[in-house]
Amino acid sequence: MARISLSRFLIEQQREGDALSAQLRLLIEVVARACKAISYTINKGELGGILGSLGTENVQGEVQKKLDVLSNEILLEANEWGGHLAALASEEMDTIHLIPHRYPKGEYLLVYDPIDGSSNIDVNLSVGTIFSVLEAPEGASTRDVREEDFLQPGSRQVAAGYAVYGPQTSLVLTFGKGVFGFTLDREVGSWVLTQRNIIIPEGNREFAINMSNHRHWVPQVRQYIDDRLAGREGPCGQDFNMRWTGSMVADIHRILNRGGIFLYPWDARDPARAGKLRLLYEANPLGLIIEQAGGSAIDGTQRILDIVPAGLHDRVAVVMGARDEVEAFQSYGSAENGIGRVT
Ligand code: AHG
Ligand code: MN
Ligand code: MN
Known about the structure:
The protein contains 7 helices and 17 strands. By secondary structure, it is an alpha+beta fold. It folds into 2 domains: 6-195, Fructose-1,6-Bisphosphatase, Chain A, domain 1 (2-Layer Sandwich), CATH 3.30.540.10; 206-330, D-Maltodextrin-Binding Protein, domain 2. An 8-stranded mixed β-sheet has the order 4-3-5-6-7-8-9-10, sandwiched between helices. Strand 8 (169-174) and strand 9 (179-185) form a beta hairpin. 45% of the residues are buried.
């Protein structure tokens, strides 16, 4: 079979009609190139002086790793000058970043988590980059973009994707018409199409949740997990397996390929916080990919992609994965207890 590079794939998508505009094609090429640069940087590890923390905190009060900041800059610099963006927002930046006036402005907004699973970097486990693309508001060419322009529900994403830097470097993309997977050929330096129309397998009894928070969950979540821990002897009548990588993007990549469910529910450690994960940078892009692969993504009560964000750095409770297992979770009742709140 002919090897189809990302460039060829994107050009073919563009030719197919309204699926892909020229600016969106450029945007994806640029982001994919930046992910390639991040991958090579990560690969150097200790030899590249990229391990460890910087000693600074991001707007969400999390300690920044050197690689968080470096990857943020790689994506920023790659995307500034191409004329495809009006503005960017990232988990590692307090406010939105406008395209400088010296460059042409484009039709899109880019939102990203430069490194997801940062706690894995120093111990040589999988991390990834997650991104989401929205349309800039009309008139963005004549006025500066504002933060409110980013506060669109996830259903309005025109594209989303992620890279996983693991044993292989993978890139997964959707433009709202199926999910496609690419693998980085490091010798050639090219992304090669390796999966078309990914569909999440059902029937895989595997869940991903940070079990150490068990005592902080609402009863509905605890019951759902306890029933699965009870295995064959419990109400599910089947044994379940558990996996938790500490990197949502790697867990979602496994679920996309093997099935199962990912949960990061609200918990009582910080009651004012709807969840740990970020709506714009993590839940929305991965939620769109999961839905496009036939799965579901909810915050415990409602569809994640329907939530209208109130702020750039909003957090959200997350339950996503194979449709059968998300439905099983929903059968434990809807939560009036705060699992679905957005702060
Ligand atoms: P980030 O590295 O971007 O801050 O995200 C980490 C997130 C997510 O990827 C992962 O599933 C979760 O935090 C891990 O949380 P625990 O520390 O509770 O395991
Ligand atoms: Mn993250
Ligand atoms: Mn991050």
